[in-house]
Specification:
With 151 residues, this protein is mostly beta strands. The chain has one domain: Sandwich (Immunoglobulin-like). The protein has one helix at residues 35-45, and strands at 3-11, 18-27, 50-54, 59-61, 66-72, 77-86, 89-90, 96-98, 101-106, 112-123, 130-142. The chain contains 1 helix and 11 strands, in the order ββαβββββββββ. Strands 1, 2, 4, 6, 7, 10 and 11 form a 7-stranded mixed sheet that branches. A 4-stranded antiparallel sheet has the order 3-5-9-8, with no helix packed on it. Helix content is 7%, strand content 53%.
Amino acid sequence: MGYSQVGVFIESSMSGLHLRSFRWLVPLGLCGLPLAAGLAGLLMLGPALLDVQTPVADAQVGIEGVEVFVRFDVVRARAATFRALLNGADVTDELEVAQNGVHGSLHGLLHGDNELRLEIYGEGYWPPGLLLEETRTYHIRFRPRLDFNRG
């Protein structure tokens, strides 16, 4: 199952300090917050910084690798801070990163389960100077063809 994680930071322009105010984990598909708290969070944080088109959660891929296509919130996302981690290794350079998103194919997956983590920083709506870190994690299963290694 894929999940998102949002970290919230407050930048103080007067002191130059970056203070971490809170961090939480939100499982996809679950809504445990009351409606009022959800609306207040949306007004403060704004919509998601990452709009992931592919991969999908719990995808199964073959030797063609995994296709990655992500759109950024052009106004609030800081494209230069985007990172892609495949099983903990930074694979950002294997993707084409632009101001409005990223795309490409990742190869060299391990047999079985793999974890792809997408990270980006951006700005929240309120208070001014609110810095957000949004991450998405996807579990991808690599299954080569059965006859691939047979003679």
